[in-house]
Amino acid sequence: MGNAYNVMAATCPSRTVLHRIGARWTVFVVNALDNRPMRFTELKAHIRGITSKALTETLRAMEYDGLISRTEIPAHPPHVEYALTDLGRSLLTPLRAVREWAESHVPDIESARAQADAQR
Amino acid sequence: MGNAYNVMAATCPSRTVLHRIGARWTVFVVNALDNRPMRFTELKAHIRGITSKALTETLRAMEYDGLISRTEIPAHPPHVEYALTDLGRSLLTPLRAVREWAESHVPDIESARAQADAQR
DNA sequence: CCCGGACGGTATAGATTTGATACCGGTATC
DNA sequence: GATACCGGTATCAAATCTATACCGTCCGGG
């Protein structure tokens, strides 16, 4: 498809993009918002182990990059809703594949680790 | 396909697997070894911006996880060759998709960032 | 009115990870 | 010899992440 960007070049903008995708929690947020918008606390509960700070920073960065939208809903009680944008949804396909790979290859990696440990 | 692992659970082994895949440089190494084995210095030159230390650590971790193999070749001059294992090759498909997403969506993200900057 | 709790975060400090820079031993070439 | 390349280590400073505590707003109950 020959586009002009190459992640292997240190200065290429695609590098920063890949860096952002690869950031600790981005994958989890994208996967969590897969089929519906969520609120802050809902996300925090869903992605077990994330702290408020990490979640806030991840959401801010993703919003800045146009991957998610943040909407304050003035209902009673008011609350905040995070949702994938079209761009974010387009990222869903590759990231879901990564997630599925991770979930389905746990035994392979665990046995590789066990074998490496036994070696020493 | 219903496997037993869920990355959203903090204690799930798949979490550590995903963490490893998401580590700074893993994506680059997998993509670099896409169509042939490479030597240490070759990899370092190919993945612009990586330091020896980062590359060493990434390679060690990936070898431990069974994603790549490290072979010392006793030719003259002797050298070291890194190659994807079958497991590593299976990771290639999802990660190549991520790489391609990054390379093809740079303009979208840049314009989202520009728009966010203009907002303030 | 007062109390308590949920929501959506901040502030701060300590631990962990990363990166820059320098260096090193072995092999081969000049 | 002297020099250079390969495949790394060692060391230390800088950036990042985590844990923990805290905060203001809004709401419902008593």
UniProtKB/TrEMBL annotation, chains A, B:
InterPro entries given in the database record: HTH_HxlR (IPR002577), WH-like_DNA-bd_sf (IPR036388), WH_DNA-bd_sf (IPR036390)
Entries under Pfam families matching the protein: HxlR
Keyword Chaperone: no
SUPFAM superfamilies: Winged helix' DNA-binding domain (SSF46785)
Domain (HTH hxlR-type) ranges: 12-110
Origin: domain of life: Bacteria
This protein's UniProt keywords: DNA-binding, Transcription, Transcription regulation
Stored PANTHER family: TRANSCRIPTIONAL REGULATOR, MARR FAMILY (PTHR33204), TRANSCRIPTIONAL REGULATORY PROTEIN (PTHR33204:SF18)
Protein name stated in the entry: Helix-turn-helix transcriptional regulator
